[in-house]
Every structure is written in C-alpha cells, then in structure tokens.
Amino acid sequence: MQEEVLPEQILIWTGENLKRRSLGIFLASMLSLCTATGHAAGIKVMCDSPVAPALAKVADLFRQETNNQVSLACNAGPAIKKRIEDGEVADVVIVEPDFVEALTSSGKVRAGDRPLVGHVGVGLGNRVDSPAHDISTIAKFKNTLLGADLIVFNSVKSGEAFAAVLDRLGIAETLRPKIVRTAPLAIFEPVLKGRGNDMAAGTIPLIATTPGIKLLGPLPGDLQSAIPYTAALMTSAPQRATAESFIEFLLSPKAKQTFAANGVT
Hints:
47% of the residues lie in helices and 22% in strands. It is α/β, with parallel strands linked by helices.
C-alpha cells in the first residue's frame, strides 16, 4: 500500500528542493564568473616614452575587447634596453628597431617578425604662457630658432635628428651659446623654469602631453625626421599567447586610428 504524503510534507520537500536548486544556480553562476575571470590575463609591456600616451589608449581598447589587462612600463629607449639586459621580465617591448636588434642578439627578444607600430615625428614647443610662433615653413622655423633665448633638446635619437637640422640650416654655431643638451626625458624642465623665449625640441607626443608646454608644430617640410617603433615578443614572456594577441591588436584598424590621433603615424 502506498504511503500517504501529507500536504505539509509536500511543502517541506518542495521548499528544500527550491533551496537546493537556488544554491545550485548560485554555485554555477560563481563557477562561470571564475572561469571567465580565469581566461583574462595580464601582460607587461615595456615601451619607449614617446609612444606611451598613444599606447595607453590602445591598451585600454585591448582591455575593453578582451578583458586582458596591460601594464605599461615606459622610459627612454636606452633605459628600457638596459633594464631588459639587466634581467627585468616583460611580455612585449616596443622600442626603436636598433634596440630590438640588440635585444634579439642578446637573447632577450624572440627572433622573427617585428611589426611596425608607427612613427613619431619631432616638433618644437614652448611654455603655454609664451607667444605662439609660426614654424610652418622652413624660413619661419629658422627665424623662430634664431630669436630664441634658449633651445633644449636631448642626447638620443630625436635630439640627434634636431642637431642635424641645425647643421643643415647652417645655424648650429650661431645658436651654440643658447643650446642645452639634456637626458632623454629632461628637455622640458629648463623651459618650464625659464622666463625668456625658451623652446624645447623633441618628440611630438611628449611635447603635446607635457603640462605647461604647448606644441608649436612639427619640423616643417623635409626637415622632419620620423622615428620608427617596432613591437617584439620577449623571450621570457610569462603570458605568451596574450602577448601575441596584443601585438596583433596593435596592427588593427582601430588601434592604428587611435595611434594616429595621438601622434604615432
């Protein structure tokens, strides 16, 4: 004879099953969340400072699309090269091609394709409270330099390019008493502390994003010397798959558009 089930038992049984079902759904949801989070990865990218403002925005786009975090470690190219040679570990490095070649030779960077991220041009800037100067033509650019009280540029690639421009214009000796050469990232300090008609020559993205400095414009005409930057996979990359997908993303139309809008063309 079948045992009679009381209504109270039905309610209790149903309630317990609802609790169990709810708990199961909750645990499944948590497992799904943990699994999705587990697929996300964080990579470290070491880069030369001139590409940093644009690269930060591209890295944010990559995070939005993939949920993968990108940590940027930016410094002057020679400093990045030395940090890597001294043993600092990262997933991707973005520097000038000659630095990549040296790091490949020392075994720090994988051999193979090194996609071009873009070029950074050289420009001229002064304090935001200083008069604006038209440097859109070579003649106007030359006259602007001759009227400066101080001209600051660095001792690495962009500075060497600017020094070559002064030689080409035939005004290097005339301007010599006004010239200050600095470490790669120290070109703005003398201008910001100055009170005269002081100018800094350097990479356009850094001039455009430094507080207190305004960009007068790029070097005009064929005086311009664009500096290339390439991306390479580090030999010891902890997150190789994510690093490779990030390098691929750098070449996407969306990334290229963002780079171009921030001075890396």
